[in-house]
Design goal:
Layout (H helix, E strand, L loop, with lengths): L17 H17 L1 H10 L4 H10 L1 H6 L15 H14 L1 H18 L4 H12 L4 E4 L15 E4 L5 E11 L6 E8 L8 E6 L6 E6 L7 E11 L4 E4 L1 H15 L1 H22 L2 E2 L2 E2 L4 H29 L8 H27 L9 H8 L10 H9 L2 H6 L37 H6 L4 H19 L10 H27 L3 H23 L6 H9 L8 H12 L10
Parallel strand pairs: 1-4, 2-4
Antiparallel strand pairs: 2-3, 3-7, 4-5, 5-8, 6-7, 9-10
Length: 572
C-alpha cells in the first residue's frame, strides 16, 4: 500500500512512454539536486522561480506535455494526456506550490487557445511553448473577481477591422512573463453574451502594463492593464457565447490539477512529519508511542490514500469523456473541492503532531502549511464548487443509466475532447451509472457497509423530507447538504479504484472509518441549521453512527504508516 504514495527515491512510472518517464524523472532530479535548503530559502526569500522556468524550457517540459497532437507538427511525444499532466502536477506540488503554479496557469492560459479554431493563434501558442515560454489566463478582475458576467476589459473597434483593448486584470499568474495571455473582455456597444470576446495578448507588448505582484509570495500573481492594446483578427480566439463557454470549459480542464498539487504537498509533508515524530523522544518514548499521535497519523494516511484513489480514478473519466458521457463534470468539482480540503485536513493533522517543527525555517512543513491554504480557494471557492456539485445530485442519486465500463486510462492518447466540450450548460441533464454498484462490491468491508447505509439515508432524506422552496434558496443549508452528497460520490470512485488496483481491504476499511465519522459530523451540522425542519432534524440524529472499531485493523494500517519513517528525505 505504501507504493501509492509518490516517493522520489524509487519513482518509476512504467506505464508511461520513454520520453514521458524521462521528463518526469528529470524534473525530480532537478529538484533533488537543488536540495531542500535551496527550496526553503527561496520560498522564504520570496524569490521568483526563474530557475525552474529555465529548466522547463531547456527540457521542453511544458511544450511536450501541453501541446495537443493536432498542433505538434508530427512530434510523436507531444499530446495532451491527462494522466501525465496529473503526474507532473503531483510532482510539482510535492516540491511546492511555487513550482506547480506556473505550470497550472500555463494550462489555464492554453485552454481558450486550444479550444479556438484560429490557426494563427494556435500556431503562436505552440511556437511559444517550443521556445520555452509560459502562458497566463486573464479572466479575473479586481472589482469583479471571476464573475465573467461582468467585465471592464473593453474592446473598441478601430475602424480597420480590429480593436483596441483597454482595461485591467487582477490575480493573473505568470502575468509578468507570459508570451500568450488569454484575455476575456467585451466589445463596446454590444450588450449581453453576444459582446463577449477572448483574445490573446503578450506581456512583452508596450501597451501591456504590469502593475504589481498582488501577493507577498515567491510566485508572481499579477495585476496588469492594457491601454489601447491593438487586437487583430489573428488575436481573436472566441466571440459571443462561445467565449463564455471557453472560459468555463477552460476551468473544467484546469481545475482538475489542483487536487494533484494538493496530494503532492501532503505527501512530502507526510514523509517529513512521520520521520520527525517517530525519531523524537519525549518523556522517554518516541512521540509516535502516544495513542492520539498514532490516531492522527492513521487518519491523515487514510485521507491521503483516499484522495489519491479518487483522483486517479477521475482521470479515467476525463480521458474517456465524450458528448454522450459527461460524468467528468461532476467528478471535476469534487476533485477540486473535496480533495483539496482533505489535503488541508491532512496538513492540519500533521502540523498538530509536529507542533513547533512546522514553524521552523528549514522545514518543508512550514512551506506546506502556507501553500495548502491556497488550493481550495483557486478556480472557485469551496462554496462555488459545492453549489456546482448539487446540480448533479438528482440524476446521480435517482436516475442511473447504463454506460460501458470505464477502464484505467494510462494509454498514450491525446485527450482532444477536452477542447471541444461544447456549450457549458445542461449540467442537470448529465446522467450517471448506478452508484450503488461500487458499494455492493465492497459490502463485506465493515465500514463500507456502514457508510453505504448512511448514503442510502441521504437518498431517503431527499425522498421523504426534501429541501423546501425556501431551503433551496438557503445556501447555508444547501452547502451542508452538498457535503453529504459529495461524500457519497467520493466514496464511489474510491471503491472503483480499489477494485481496479487491489487495494488492501484493511486500509479501505480505515478510509471508510473516516467517512462514517465525517458523514455523522455533517448530519449534526445540518441538524443545527436555522431552517432545518423537525423531520430533517430527526433524520440527522438517526445518521449519527460510530465506525466499526477494529484494533487489529488499526495496528495493520499503523504499521504501514510507521514504515514511512525514513522512507524519503530530501537531500540538504
Amino acid at each position: 500500500m505504501t507504493s501509492l504514495l509518490f516517493n522520489p527515491s524509487d519513482y518509476d512510472p512504467r506505464h508511461f512512454d520513454a520520453e514521458t518517464r524521462r521528463l518526469l524523472r528529470a524534473t525530480i532530479d532537478w529538484f533533488e539536486q537543488r536540495g531542500k535548503r535551496t527550496l526553503v530559502e527561496k520560498f522564504h526569500a520570496k524569490e521568483f522561480h526563474a530557475d525552474f522556468l529555465e529548466f522547463a524550457a531547456k527540457e521542453n517540459l511544458f511544450a511536450t506535455l501541453l501541446t495537443p497532437a493536432a498542433d505538434a507538427k508530427g512530434d510523436p511525444d507531444k499530446r495532451w494526456d491527462t494522466a501525465r499532466v496529473a503526474a507532473l502536477s503531483e510532482i510539482l506540488g510535492f516540491y511546492g506550490l511555487s513550482y506547480w503554479y506556473p505550470w497550472q496557469v500555463t494550462i489555464l492560459g492554453l485552454g481558450p487557445v486550444w479550444q479556438s479554431a484560429n490557426p494563427a493563434a494556435r500556431e503562436r501558442a505552440a511556437k511559444l511553448l517550443a521556445d520555452g515560454g509560459v502562458c497566463a489566463f486573464g479572466l479575473s478582475e479586481k472589482d469583479h473577481g471571476a464573475d465573467i458576467y461582468a467585465t471592464d476589459m473593453v474592446l473598441t473597434p478601430d475602424g480597420q477591422g480590429g480593436y483596441r483593448a483597454t482595461g485591467g486584470k487582477y490575480y493573473i499568474g505568470n502575468g509578468n512573463v507570459a508570451g500568450v495571455v488569454s484575455v476575456f473582455g467585451r466589445i463596446e456597444g454590444v450588450e449581453g453574451p453576444d459582446g463577449y470576446v477572448f483574445f490573446v495578448a503578450d506581456s512583452r507588448h508596450e501597451n501591456y502594463h504590469l502593475v504589481k505582484n498582488v501577493v507577498p509570495s515567491q510566485i508572481f500573481v499579477s495585476e496588469f492593464r492594457l491601454e489601447d492594446y491593438p487586437v487583430t483578427a489573428d488575436d481573436i480566439l472566441h466571440t459571443g457565447p462561445a467565449a463564455f463557454d471557453a472560459a468555463l470549459n477552460t476551468v473544467n480542464v484546469g481545475k482538475f490539477n489542483l487536487c494533484f498539487g494538493g496530494i503532492g504537498i501532503a505527501e512530502h509533508a507526510f514523509y517529513e512529519a512521520i520521520t520527525h515524530a517517530h525519531n523524537r523522544i519525549l518523556y522517554g518514548h518516541p512521540v509516535t508511542d502516544f495513542p492520539h499521535v498514532k490516531a492522527q497519523f492513521v487518519d491523515a494516511y487514510a485521507r491521503l490514500v483516499a484522495s489519491k484513489l479518487f483522483c486517479d480514478r477521475a482521470v479515467d473519466y476525463f480521458r474517456s469523456a465524450n458528448p454522450d458521457d459527461r460524468r467528468y463534470l461532476l467528478f471535476n468539482p469534487v476533485t477540486k473541492m473535496k480533495a483539496t480540503t482533505e489535503a488541508e485536513k491532512i496538513i492540519a493533522l500533521l502540523t498538530e503532531v509536529v507542533a513547533a517543527k512546522s514553524f521552523e525555517a528549514d522545514s518543508y512543513l512550514t512551506v506546506a502549511a502556507t501553500d495548502i491554504r491556497g488550493l481550495p480557494k483557486l478556480e472557485g471557492t469551496v462554496a462555488v464548487n459545492l453549489a456546482l456539485i448539487l446540480k448533479f445530485m438528482p440524476n446521480y442519486l435517482f436516475a442511473p443509466t447504463e454506460y460501458p465500463p470505464v477502464p484505467t486510462r494510462q494509454d498514450a492518447a491525446d485527450d482532444e475532447f477536452l477542447f471541444r466540450q461544447g456549450p457549458a450548460r445542461g449540467l442537470g441533464k448529465v446522467q450517471f451509472h448506478d452508484w450503488r454498484e461500487a458499494y455492493r462490491t465492497f459490502v463485506h468491508v465493515p465500514n463500507v457497509e456502514r457508510f453505504a447505509l448512511q448514503a442510502e439515508g441521504l437518498a431517503e432524506l431527499l425522498m421523504t423530507a426534501p429541501p423546501s422552496a425556501e431551503q433551496q434558496k438557503d445556501l447555508d443549508f444547501l452547502l451542508t447538504l452538498g457535503e453529504l452528497f459529495t461524500l457519497v460520490v467520493y466514496g464511489q470512485l474510491i471503491l472503483e479504484q480499489a477494485e481496479l488496483t487491489g487495494v488492501d481491504p484493511l486500509v479501505l476499511d480505515q478510509i471508510f472509518d473516516t467517512f462514517v465519522r465525517d458523514f455523522s459530523g455533517y448530519a449534526v451540522a445540518l441538524h443545527g441549521k436555522p431552517s432545518t425542519t423537525l423531520p430533517q432534524q430527526q433524520w440527522a440524529v438517526g445518521q449519527i453512527r460510530k465506525p466499526v472499531v477494529d484494533a487489529e485493523r488499526f495496528a495493520h494500517v499503523w504499521s504501514q504508516v510507521e514504515n514511512l519513517s525514513g522512507a524519503y528525505e530530501m537531500r540538504p
